[in-house]
Each structure stands twice: as structure tokens, then as C-alpha cells.
Amino acid sequence: METTEHGSMDLEHAGHPGIYPPSGQHNDNEDRGKKAEPAGRKKVDPNSSEQARKSQQHIPDDIDSWKELLRQHIGLDKSFEVQVREMVFGGKRVALLFLSVFAKDVSLMEILKRLSYIDPDSNLDHDAMHSFLEQYLTAVQIQKTTSFPRMIDDVLAGNTAFYVDGEAAALIIDAKSFPGRNPEQPSLEKVVRGSQDGFTETLLVNVALIRRRLRDPNLRFEILKVGRRTQTDVCIGYIDDIANNELVESIRDKIKAIDVDGIPLADKQLEEMTVSSSWSPFPLVRYTERPDVVAAQLLDGSVTVIVDTSPSAILLPTTYFDLVQHAEENRQNPFMGTYMRWVRYLGIMASLFLMPLWFLFNDRQALRPEWLWFIGADKVGQIPLILQFLIAEVGVDLLRLAAVHTPAPLVTAMTLLSAILIGDIAVKSGLFINEVILYMSVSAIGMFATPSYELGLANRIIRLALLLAVFFFHEIGFVVVTTFVFLFLTFERSFNAPYLWPFLPFNAAALRNILFRQPLTNNKKRLSLYRTKKNRKQPV
């Protein structure tokens, strides 16, 4: 399937007005970063493409010179997909520059068909470019540019450049189509009832899915470019009369400040460059593949960041409690939604503390409460308990990785074979005890029940840290690690938003909404976390 891209051409270069400095000017940052070359060392000059993007500013008015520049800087006659179609219309030599892998044949054929009607005896010598633009080119979106780097970037983005011999300019025609897929149900955020469409790898499709749900004239989508070589489209979405201006400006400034070769891994690399550059295991952004979740968050005052080629959107700012919410809770009535929410909370808590607490009570039975008399193992097994837990943890990770890399028809058979057969043999052979397999299974289920995949992995690391702390330092280790993690989360921030809000700092009304799924009629105000321009969502 092909997805047609339209509507982004006029904003493509709004994000980096200074990428190509005018001729004769120097980049201060580059000058400051230069160091004197040691004597005897050969100085490495930038390649011709990099040099051209900085020095060559204007499109030549001779078609042969124009094509020579294309050979040097974009690989004309070397790279098979770089195509130039030369023709003569109205006595003028014209050329279409495009990438065959992105060009939309139907649109270009209509343009050529229209141009073929021009009388060969027509006199287009006077301002021919204006005549083609105003009278003959039948494309919806066309822009004129005199910048050679701008023309190259637009062509690499899938557009077509229309060049006229004798004119030091080109017309950029939006006639492109990108390979894509239809919106499908997100694999990580499935719901029993509700929309079954999710984001795809095409930016404009994702924006359209949000626009379909938010027909608000104040909804804004800003396009920025990130990466010197990849020139990746990054979209910032927000509702202008709701979102906090400081939050939007902070996100925009951080994205504009990114100076790297590219972000081919899309949103994850963008996150590391803007939000979480530390070694913290906890995610500081919320990923979602559901356009209805993005629409709901935008109405609350959140800001979304969508990266082209990524099937997920980033929601900012993010708290720990945002990461444990799921769309299914809002698809049920308030009572059932609250029940499902509490079951999920219990599963997350079990994935964190069940195994370390069992290990602690088994090792220090004096600490075990009377009502937990059944806690403990009658036999230890041939391997020490701590090694059994660690091996089981690694085994679950291997099982998860194997499921990812196994063809879909074989996943079920592989998981059953690994989980049942190997576990049963390990217990019967005396290497493992039943309690380890039981508590490891419950903890793994709790991890998989965590809506945020990244948070589930972070909780796994904390569980391992608690297990090792209990093994080496017993109850003191458990208390110290738990306290350290709590303090760490207390001081963690996502775009200046407290990570444990509304628990710390305490907000009773917001915490009530976290613990209980409130009816829609009770949600009259937006969360104070976002500091929105309009606090009220519906009349009193």
C-alpha cells in the first residue's frame, strides 16, 4: 500500500533556519570547537556534499551547470533512483528532478500532460518561471526557491524540482508517495471495545488520525527538522488555547538545539537527546500508539511529539502514574474501570516486591508475621535460592527475547515448550523448587500487566536490586534500596514536572482520580500539573 504525503512542504524548513549560513559568514560554534592541527598531521577536509550544503547557496541559471552540481552533490548518474527528466516546452528546456522511489507517477504524468499542450511556438522567454507557475503547472502545492541546498533537501524529502533553463530558481512540487501500511490495532495497547486504529510509520497519517478526533481550530502541529543527514520530520502537537506556552517553547527549543548526524531510530533517539540522557532506568516520557489517547491528553493540556517513521507518539510531561494508565479502563463503566485499575496496581506491586519479600521471610523467619505462616520453603534445592531467582529472571528475559525473534506461528509452541517443559524438568530434577517458579511466574505476569513496556523493564531492574540487597544485607538492604528508589523517583522530573505527582507534591483531587476511575461528568477541571491556560473542561 502507498500513502500519499501532502500538506507538509510549506513547513519543512521552519525548524532550522540557520542550517545553511550565507556565503561569507562563519559558524561561531564551529570556530570555537576547532583545534589547531598538530604538525605533520594531514588535515581532513569535509566531503564535497557537506561543503556544498554550506557554501553553494544559489541555483545556477544554466541547465548544464545545474546538472553538474547534481552529479557532485546528490549522485546523479551514480545513484539509480536520482532521476532527471529533460523536455522542451514553449521553446524552453525544462527538467524534472525527483527520486523514483518517492515520485508519484500519476501526479507527474498529469503535469507533463498539461505541459504538452503548450504551443511550441509560444514565447516564454520573458519570465518563463512565472508562466509555468501561474498557468501551466497543475499541482496543488508548489513553492519557488532559489536555494540549491533547499532544493536538494526538498527532493530528498520526496518532492519534485521543476527547473527551467535560464532561470536561477526551481519550483518545488509536492507530488510524492511514501510506502506505508493501513492503521491497525496497536499491539501493546489493545482494548476489547473501542477504536482499532493505531499510528503508522507515516507522520501525516498519524496527524490525520488525531485531527479526525480533534476538530478544534486551535489544534496546532509544528514541523521541525532534526539531523544534518537524516533531516527527520518531527511534529509538535498541542492545543493553542489550552497548552502552557512555556512547556511548548521548552520542547521546541530542546528539539531545535539537537545537532547530530541523524536520528534513524526516530522517537527513542529524540527522547535521549531532549529528555532522558542519564542512566535512569525509568522512562521520562510516555509512548502511545493510540490516537484517541493522544487526543484525550491534548485536551488535558499535554503536548505530543510525533516523529516520522515511528508508529508511536510521545506525550509530555509524564509522571509515574501516567505510565500505569490504560485506555481499557476508560472503555468500561467507572466501577469496572476502577476494579481493573486496582488489579493492575496490585500486579505492578507484586512484580516489584513479591519475590524479594518472600526471599526475606524465608531467610529471616523471625520477621515473618503469624498470618503468613505458609511462607517459606521446606527444601532449598541443589542450587542456592538467590541463584535460582537470578537464573529464573534471566530465563524469563530469554523467553521474551525469543518470542520477539520467533516467527508468529511458532511463538505459542515455543513459549509452552519453554515455560512448561523446562520449568517442570527443573523442578523434578531438584535444581529448582516449586516456590521459585510460582513467585517468578506471578512477578512476570505483573510485569507484563504494566501498560508501559519501558516501565515494566525498569521495575524488573528494581526487583533484581531488591533481591541482591536482601541476599547481602537482609532486611536492612531491603529498606535501604526501597528508600533510595523512592527518593530517586521523588527528585526525578520530566520537563520540570514532578515524577511522583500527585503523590509528591500531594494533590488530593488528582490522586483520587488516579486511584478511582471517575465518571466523565465529574472531570470538570484539567490537571494542575500542566498549568494550562484554561482550567475548566466543562461547566460547573
Automatic annotation (TrEMBL):
Record carries keyword Iron: no
Top-level taxon: Bacteria
UniProt keywords, alphabetically: Membrane, Transmembrane, Transmembrane helix
Basic and acidic residues bias spans: 1-15, 27-45
Residue ranges of the region described as Disordered: 1-61
Regions crossing the membrane: 342-361, 410-431, 437-457, 464-487, 499-516
Biological process according to GO: spore germination
Cellular component terms (Gene Ontology): membrane
The keyword Nucleotide-binding appears for this protein: no
Matches recorded under PANTHER family: SPORE GERMINATION PROTEIN, STAGE V SPORULATION PROTEIN AF
Protein family according to the UniProt entry: Belongs to the GerABKA family.
Name by which UniProt lists this protein: Spore germination protein
